[in-house]
TrEMBL record, chain A:
Entry-linked CDD domains: TM_PBP2 (cd06261)
Biological process according to GO: transmembrane transport
Domain ABC transmembrane type-1: 117-327
Cellular compartments annotated: Cell membrane
Tree of life domain: Bacteria
Name of the protein described by the UniProt record: ABC transporter permease
UniProt KW Coiled coil keyword: no
SUPFAM superfamilies for this protein: MetI-like (SSF161098)
One Pfam short name: BPD_transp_1_N
Transmembrane segments: 9-30, 121-144, 156-180, 200-222, 262-284, 304-330
Taxonomic placement: Bacteria, Bacillati, Actinomycetota, Actinomycetes, Streptosporangiales
UniProt similarity note: Belongs to the binding-protein-dependent transport system permease family.
Automatic annotation (TrEMBL), chain B:
Entry keywords, A to Z: ATP-binding, Cell membrane, Membrane, Nucleotide-binding, Transport
PANTHER family reported for this sequence: DIPEPTIDE TRANSPORT ATP-BINDING PROTEIN DPPD, OLIGOPEPTIDE TRANSPORT ATP-BINDING PROTEIN APPD
Record's GO cellular component terms: plasma membrane
Membrane topology: Peripheral membrane protein
SUPFAM superfamilies: P-loop containing nucleoside triphosphate hydrolases (SSF52540)
Any one Pfam family match given in the protein's UniProt record, by short name: oligo_HPY
InterPro entries registered for this protein in UniProt: AAA+_ATPase (IPR003593), ABC_Ni/Peptide_Import (IPR050388), ABC_transporter-like_ATP-bd (IPR003439), ABC_transporter-like_CS (IPR017871), Oligopep_ABC_C (IPR013563), P-loop_NTPase (IPR027417)
GO molecular function: ATP binding; ATP hydrolysis activity
Main subcellular location: membrane
Gene3D superfamilies: P-loop containing nucleotide triphosphate hydrolases
Protein family membership: Belongs to the ABC transporter superfamily.
Transmembrane segments: none
Name the UniProt record assigns to this protein: ABC transporter ATP-binding protein
Automatic annotation (TrEMBL), chain C:
GO cellular component, one term: periplasmic space
SUPFAM superfamilies per record: Periplasmic binding protein-like II
GO term, biological process aspect, one: peptide transport
Organism: Actinomadura darangshiensis
Stated name of the protein: ABC transporter substrate-binding protein
Keyword Transcription regulation (UniProt): no
Region (Disordered): 26-64
Length: 337, 355, 588
């Protein structure tokens, strides 16, 4: 088990190096393949008056004048040992692991990521709890009452949930519950949990529900399909033959077996979400990683993009490792190796 | 679960029988989009404690559905059940689901065909036995565990105190079936239904398991229903045989009668297709021609007539009139239009010699 | 200042239109038609009040380029920075034409010029203090100009001071590299209240230049370079409590601000909050619901919200000002056959401006059909139309207009028309729609254009602002938009029609116009101390430009602006491009 984790972690580091390399490549080599010069790339970071002098200054300031390989090497070096950054009259030291400074705002990347992560974490975890609860219970009831009015209604709602964009559901829920009935605070009211837990909760209810609606719909369908399959298993018949109450049969025997495949999907979903729930964050004005990612990509802010990408990749890798470990715990037939 | 209750108009109206288990005119029908599937269509039999009834028939003859019906394990949502099932003086068809559930595992239990798929892969064998025991007995986990180890030992699993914490996939096929049996017997059931208990096992292991069931039956004095398509198993274990065809009883007899004086052409066919180890076989096997009937469109008259080589001997009765199960000799019933003498003649002259 | 207007890229209200109309609709607007009236904010500040207190809440679908007064170019940022900083001069807090007037702010008076407009002297007010209690001196103003114009680190703002001030020899490297006490020699601070600027050329609109946030004082000891945006020292009525990029800015009263030193500010709210990176459609919902006071970007409501604000209940809270923006098409004089003036004139006639206007959102959200380069909200605007068009009864250009275009094509030697390319910014769907409308109208006289699209971020730096690229790819027509960095004819025209504005990349003179008469007209005007004569001259230059037929004005941009009921002193200022003036805004 221990050796397995070590092996996986080494794999993760290799993966992250690859991800960073690819991100670097997309940023530098693709524009160059498209025929752009370094000056042209640098020009987009200058502002509105890109004089030759300003472009030269910017190239030096951002290190774009060096070969891409050297830039990549410097990036890794900063990660390992940190680096100093000249912010004008003052010099900033960025300790390892230093993920560099934004090309746009000169803010340190790691600090920004850590500043944004709690919002995304709050959103993703809260929504995950809601969608797991609602999605799985709906799926179970639908499966047990297959063909009933409940089943049909919930599966139609689930279909709607899967098909409606968060943009739509988010804005409609804001219009209804916030601006018309004034039950929940409006967009942009996110507060850090450490500042004001009550407001944090209030502000996140609608985003949680909106985001969870999409996923709950998906999970309800998955759970329903899984349950229908499991309920036909021989061991469910055995459980009944033992005289177990139906509740025990469903929850202990059927649900547990149906949930294992969902666990894998959940790991992927949560990992991706932890890299930022772009649409939800944008709709509700939550300052999370997703918005940071989009803004950084749009403004060509390489260090920030790298930061978010690596963070997302890390969270996916870590959560998948956890899922795999859990899988071995849940299903004794699975052996890690 | 609030499935539609079984149609109970005809159930629970009769008098309590003297037999330990008595099934009267049991019908289990499944309405489907393609039509009504008559899996069991008017079946009656009795069974006493300490006795073993073998139910034989091809796949789809209704033998497994009968056993599930007795335990109340058929899909209640889409099945119409009528008739009566009396177990130790209690009628089960009209009983509430909760009542039947309480009987399951305690008064009646079941051993399934494939022990691997029939045990939950995520729980240890011990856990599953403990669960079965504790649902009917208000005891602590420790006591239940001791009982489970005890049961594993009694079904012949070596080092039961160690194996109790193993998962099913770590057991060999035979050991798994022993564990399954331990689970089924953990509450001393009065009725044990074994549905093809040896089909999925090696031939060498089969005999061990059959021995085990026989030993345990004697020890517990249970009534056993042995469902199988393997007449060899029946010959080995059963006192009586019920031959089923298309959801109905074709023949009911003591084992000796059934093997040596069978009175139904279908039974002859079954015997003919059975490999015999105890004697030199004269010719190759004699399989029954044709295939089992659709349970939606059961052939008119005698359901066996399309496959029966002697159906023409009855004029058109075979296709128009359904033969009833009639007691022809004491304790020996069969449902066939052929005159009794003719049957004895065919058996003695044509069939017996070929076996 | 075309970049000052961050266009909401995120699917502007696509969804909102369909989904929210049903549930949002003004059921909570109160007494219908009781507001101050449609377009009232264009003429005068609406809901005038001196009531102090409360929190004024702004929302922004984007973020600042930087809130550092020395490192910003956005119009709203220039407007808003005046709450936490005081430049030498500023624009009068008023609505409409009156807002174009420059008034002294940190300076006691307008600049005193000598040396034919090459030397400008300002006296600072006494007793102006920073939020830390220290006193503002003229050295801090000099330092602010130096850091914002001469350092490598602060690149985002305009560089007019660097362009017009006399440079050191060797060239001044900015205060971060050049640590000498003297700094830039052409800015003198003989005492703490006096600052003198020496220009390399006569420049009579220097009072406009020092109205930019770059003259807001920055104490050298407190400057942290690119990190200063998170630790801004305030000289205005509010101090910046917190600015977190991508999240928010909060301001509270600067206890050391003294009303007696500040005749133009009212400093009404106790607190000011700005939430950035908010959903554009949700900002509109919140404005209508009353939970937000102002969209700080000042570019109007999203297209999905437009029908909602035009209902009878909401309309009295709406203004539809000209935004100081011209949307136009430049015809590059080096791309054949547009090197021939007749071909260009043919395009002038054959471009259906009404169709272009419709494509951009119609008269309310798109703007008025334009016939001049200078928009009406800029000082120096003169109304004229060299290439009059008429619409046919059932839409499209009438036969006479089309005939004129064909006649010009004949004169150009291309009687059957010609082919070229038209460029637009790919992430601005309305601009692309405009290009399509133009494509269709030109096709009617045989001018076949194919549309090429480039991302807005690189439009000028990598594509149409690079003459070499334009020539090689034969892009004869380029759609762009332009607003003045300061609201006079010179501020508007110099960057787009003066020959000096042709640059190897990142230029805005897309036509590569280098007309001696135009150049001279602008150069003479800016050296002319007589304001009235200058303004008249701008109109003349505009006519000269139109005479070359290289620029095809399409629309004077307009927007539907919403001013919630509880906002006080809401008036449209032309000096920041037709948005509300934030200087004295308050809440009821």
């Amino acid at each position: 088990m221990f050796a397995y984790i070590i092996r996986r972690l080494i794999g993760a580091v290799v993966m992250l190096l690859l991800v960073s390399l690819v991100t670097f490549g997309i940023f530098f080599w693709l524009p160059k393949l498209a025929g752009q010069t370094t000056d042209q790339i640098a020009a987009s970071y200058v502002g509105k008056a890109p004089t030759a002098e300003a472009i030269q200054d910017t190239k030096e300031r951002l290190g774009l004048d060096k070969p891409v390989v050297v830039q990549y090497g410097n990036y890794l070096k900063a990660l390992a040992v940190g680096k100093d950054y000249k912010a004008g009259p003052v010099t900033d030291h960025c300790p390892a692991p230093c993920m560099g400074y934004s090309f746009r705002s000169s803010q340190p990347v790691l600090e920004t990521l850590l500043d944004r992560a709690p919002a995304t974490l709050s959103l993703a975890i809260g929504a995950a709890i809601v969608w797991l609860g609602v999605g799985i219970s709906t799926g179970v009831v639908s499966a047990l009452r297959r063909g009933s009015v409940w089943d049909r209604a919930s599966m139609i709602i689930a279909l709607a949930g899967v098909s409606l964009p968060i943009y739509f559901t988010g804005l409609v829920s804001l219009a209804l519950f916030s601006y018309t009935f004034k039950i929940f605070p409006g967009g942009g009211s996110y507060t850090s949990v450490t500042d004001n837990p009550l407001r944090w909760f209030e502000a996140l209810v609608l985003p949680w529900v909106t985001l969870a609606f999409l996923y709950a719909a998906m999970y309800a369908r998955l759970t329903r399909a899984g349950m229908l399959e499991t309920m036909n298993e021989d061991y469910i018949r055995t459980a009944r033959a033992k005289g177990l109450p139906e509740r025990t049969v469903v929850t202990k025997h059927a649900l547990r077996a149906s949930l294992t495949p969902i666990m894998t999907i959940f790991g992927l979903d949560l990992g991706l979400l932890l890299g930022g729930a772009v649409l939800t964050e944008n709709t509700f004005g939550i300052p999370g990683l997703g918005r940071l990612a989009i803004d950084s990509i749009r403004s060509g802010d390489l260090p920030m993009v790298l930061g978010v990408t690596l963070l997302t990749a890390t969270s996916i890798i870590v959560i998948n490792l956890i899922v795999d470990l859990l899988y071995a715990v849940v299903d004794p037939r699975v052996r890690l190796g | 679960m609030t499935g539609t209750a079984p149609a109970a108009e005809t159930a629970g109206t009769g008098d309590a029988p003297a037999s330990f288990l008595e099934v009267r005119d049991l019908k289990i029908h499944f309405p489907t989009d393609d039509g009504l599937v008559k899996s069991v269509d008017g079946l009656s039999f009795q069974l006493e404690r300490g006795r073993t009834l073998g139910i034989v028939g091809e796949s789809g003859s209704g033998k497994s559905v009968t056993s599930l019906g007795i335990l109340g394990l058929h899909n209640k949502r889409n099945a119409d059940v009528s008739g009566e099932i009396w177990l130790d003086g209690k009628e089960l068809v009209g009983a509430s689901q909760a009542e039947v559930r309480r009987l399951r595992g305690r008064n009646m239990s079941m051993i399934f065909q494939d022990p691997l798929s029939s045990m939950h892969p995520f729980y240890t064998v011990g856990h599953q036995i403990i669960e079965a025991y504790r649902v009917h007995n208000d005891v602590s986990k420790a006591v239940a565990r001791k009982h489970a180890i005890d049961m594993l030992g009694r079904v012949g699993i070596p080092k039961p105190d160690k194996r109790v914490d193993d998962y099913p996939h770590l057991f060999s096929g035979g050991m798994r079936q022993r564990a399954m049996i331990a689970m089924a017997l953990s509450c001393d059931p009065e009725l044990l239904i074994a549905d093809e208990p040896t089909t999925a096992l090696d031939v060498t292991v089969q005999a061990q398991i059959l021995d085990l069931i026989r030993d345990l039956q004697q020890e517990f004095n249970s009534a056993v229903i042995m469902i199988t398509h393997d007449l060899g198993v029946v010959a080995e274990l059963a006192d009586d045989i019920l031959v089923m065809y298309a959801g109905r009883a074709a023949e009911y007899a003591a084992v000796d009668d059934a093997f040596h004086r069978p009175l139904h052409p279908y039974t002859w066919g079954l015997l003919g297709s059975m490999p015999r180890l105890d004697r030199e076989r004269s010719e190759r096997l004699l399989p029954i021609e044709g295939s089992p009937p659709s349970l939606i469109n059961v052939p008119s008259g005698c359901a066996f007539h399309p496959r029966c080589p002697y159906s023409e001997l009855n004029g058109d009765r075979s296709t128009t009139e359904r033969p009833e199960l009639i007691e022809l000799e004491p304790g020996h019933k069969a449902a066939c239009h052929l005159p009794l003498e003719k049957r004895r003649e065919i058996w003695n002259d044509e069939i017996r010699a070929k076996l | 200042m075309n970049k000052m207007r961050p266009i909401a890229v995120f699917a502007a209200g696509v969804v909102a239109a369909a989904g929210l109309a049903a549930c949002g609709g003004g059921d909570d607007s109160g007494g219908s038609g009781s507001g101050p009236g449609y377009n009232a904010g264009n003429q005068a500040q609406v809901n005038k009040s001196d009531k102090k207190g409360g929190t004024l809440k702004f929302g922004d679908s984007d973020d600042w380029d930087s809130p550092d007064p020395g490192n910003t170019y956005y119009a709203f940022s220039q407007n808003f920075a005046r709450l936490y900083g005081r430049g030498l001069t500023t624009f009068k807090p008023a609505a409409g034409k009156e807002s174009l007037e420059v008034v002294p702010d940190l300076a006691t008076d307008m600049g005193q010029s000598s040396d034919g407009g090459k030397t400008w002297t300002y006296k600072l007010r006494t007793g102006v203090k920073y939020d830390d209690g220290s006193t503002v001196t003229s050295k801090d103003v000099k330092y602010a100009v130096e850091r914002s114009n001469y350092t490598k680190e602060l690149q985002l703002g305009p560089k007019y001071f660097k362009q017009y001030l006399v440079d050191n020899k060797p060239a001044y490297k900015g205060p971060y590299e050049d640590k000498s006490d003297e700094g830039l020699k052409s800015i003198e601070t003989p005492d703490d209240q006096t600052i003198v600027f020496h220009l390399n050329t006569p420049f009579q609109e220097f009072d406009y230049l020092v109205a930019m946030s770059q003259t807001m004082p920055v104490p050298k000891a407190k400057d942290t370079g690119t990190k200063y945006e998170t630790a801004i020292v305030s000289s205005g009525p509010y101090k910046v409590d917190n600015y977190t990029r991508g999240k928010s800015m909060t301001l509270s009263r600067n206890p050391n601000w003294n009303q007696s030193t500040d005749p133009i500010r009212k400093a009404l709210p106790d607190k000011i909050e700005v939430q950035v990176k908010q959903n554009a459609d949700d900002i509109d919902q919140r404005l209508l619901a009353g939970s937000l006071d102002m969209d700080i970007a000042g570019v109007g409501v999203q297209s999905g919200t437009q029908p909602k604000v035009l209902t009878p209940e909401q309309k009295p809270y709406v203004d539809n000002p000209v935004q100081g923006f011209l949307r136009f098409m430049s015809l590059n004089q080096h791309v054949k056959p547009l090197d021939n003036k007749h071909c260009r004139v043919a395009v002038q006639y054959a471009t259906d401006k009404v169709a272009a206007q419709t494509a951009y959102g119609g008269p309310l959200a798109g703007g008025d059909v334009a016939t001049t380069v200078l928009p009406p909200s800029v000082d120096g605007y003169t109304k004229f139309d060299l290439y009059p068009q008429k619409q046919a009864e059932n839409g499209g250009l009438d036969e006479a207009t089309v005939a004129k275009a064909k006649q010009e094509l004949q004169a150009c030697g291309k009687p059957d028309g010609f082919s070229t390319k038209i460029s637009a910014r790919s992430d601005r769907p309305k601009e692309v729609a405009m290009a399509e409308a133009i494509q269709q109208s030109l096709a009617k006289v045989g001018i076949k254009v194919s549309i090429v699209q480039y991302p807005a971020g690189d439009y000028f730096n990598k594509y149409v602002g690079v003459p070499k690229y334009v020539h090689e790819h034969g892009i004869g027509m380029m759609i762009m938009a332009w607003a003045a960095d300061w609201p006079t004819g010179y501020g508007f025209l110099a960057q787009i029609v003066h020959g000096d504005a042709i640059k190897p990349s990142g230029g805005n003179n897309l036509a590569e116009m280098d007309d001696p008469a135009v150049n001279k007209g602008l150069d003479d005007a800016i050296a002319n101390p007589d304001k009235a004569a200058r303004m008249k001259a701008y109109g003349e230059v505009d006519k000269l430009v139109m005479g070359t037929a290289m620029e095809v004005p399409l629309v004077y941009a307009k927007a539907l602006m919403y001013r919630p009921k509880r906002v006080t002193n809401a008036g449209i200022t032309y000096s920041y491009g037709g948005m509300y003036d934030y200087l004295n805004m308050g809440v009821e």
